[in-house]
Design goal:
With 296 residues, the chain is α/β, with parallel strands linked by helices. 33% of the residues lie in helices and 24% in strands.
């Protein structure tokens, strides 16, 4: 529901809130009700500003259309103020999870632009560590087809050297789908997760994993710059099928920013640094896997 107050757009209620880790004091601005409520007069707001009206607090953020009301509440006690800190930070995705599907050395020379898939998977693993997103990794019959490629191995341990904050589950399989008991047993049916899938092959293991996750009631994202097949022509067909089945086809950078949702979160600077650091790899992956003008 939306309305208008004092010349600015207002949002009543904001979904998918979670704990704010930033201190409130630096962003606070005690104005009283008079200056803001004057018709036609809206003070310039910082990215997140608290406006205090007597015993109430209203939170505004800037958007392209002007200041936007995100939350309002009465403040009478320390408990109320603690509740405010708990609900200010907003992330679009509440329960993201990363699925790395069968990126094994045996497939390197068989898969179209295999190295580009590895680049995107590496970026996703680094982002998962920064954002503390759980990671699920599979190999297909590793006794015959080998382990996950060496480039990803440093990000699949919890050693202090790589500062990995993610929960990582690794499983071998013979099924094509990643939705096997060693994986599914770690994922509750409710609340739903927002699973992002990278790996190979688009039309086989990636497709069957996505369909199983959708059937289990979860939301699924497929990264177009992170999946491939032996025959490149299989990829757009698989992505079209998965989109029609209910999956979201997007890119790694878009998904990572969707996981954050708001630049106020403390991990934002780390992600910006990662995006800058991997900008060249991102371009290579997009151009290699999607081509100059993609119809995906």
């Amino acid at each position: 529901m939306r309305g208008k107050t004092a010349g600015c757009r207002v949002n009543y209620g904001y979904p998918n809130t979670e704990r704010l880790r930033l201190p409130l004091a630096p962003a606070s601005c005690h104005l009283g009700s008079r200056p803001f409520m004057k018709s036609g007069h809206v003070p310039r707001l910082s990215s997140t500003t608290l406006y205090v009206f007597s015993n109430s607090v209203t939170v505004f953020t800037m958007s392209s259309s002007g200041p936007q009301r995100r939350f309002g509440m009465s403040v009478f006690s320390d408990a109320s103020q603690a509740r405010l800190t708990d609900i200010l930070a907003v992330k679009i995705l509440e329960n993201p999870a990363v699925f790395i599907c069968d990126i094994q050395e045996k497939f390197r020379n068989a898969i179209f632009e295999f190295d580009k898939v590895v680049l995107t998977a590496t970026k996703l693993l680094r982002a998962s560590s920064t954002l503390a997103i759980p990671v699920f990794v599979t190999t297909q019959n590793s006794a015959k087809l080998g382990d996950t490629v060496a480039e990803l191995q440093p990000y699949l341990t919890s050693s202090p050297s790589n500062l990995n904050n993610s929960k990582i589950i690794i499983a071998d399989k013979t099924r094509f789908s990643m939705w096997i008991p060693p994986i599914s047993s770690h994922i509750p049916s409710s609340p739903q997760i927002e699973a992002v899938i990278v790996g190979i092959e688009s039309h086989i293991c990636v497709t069957q994993t996505a369909l199983d996750l959708l059937s289990a009631g979860h939301k699924v994202y497929i990264l177009a710059d992170g999946v491939s097949s032996c025959n490149r022509e299989e990829v757009p067909i698989a992505l079209t099928r998965l989109r029609e089945a209910g999956a979201v086809v997007t890119t790694s950078e878009s998904w990572i920013y969707e996981c954050m949702g708001d630049a106020v979160i403390p991990e934002f600077k780390g992600i910006v640094s990662l995006v800058k650091d991997t900008s060249g790899d991102t371009k290579k992956a997009l151009q290699g896997l999607l081509g100059p003008v993609s119809k995906i």
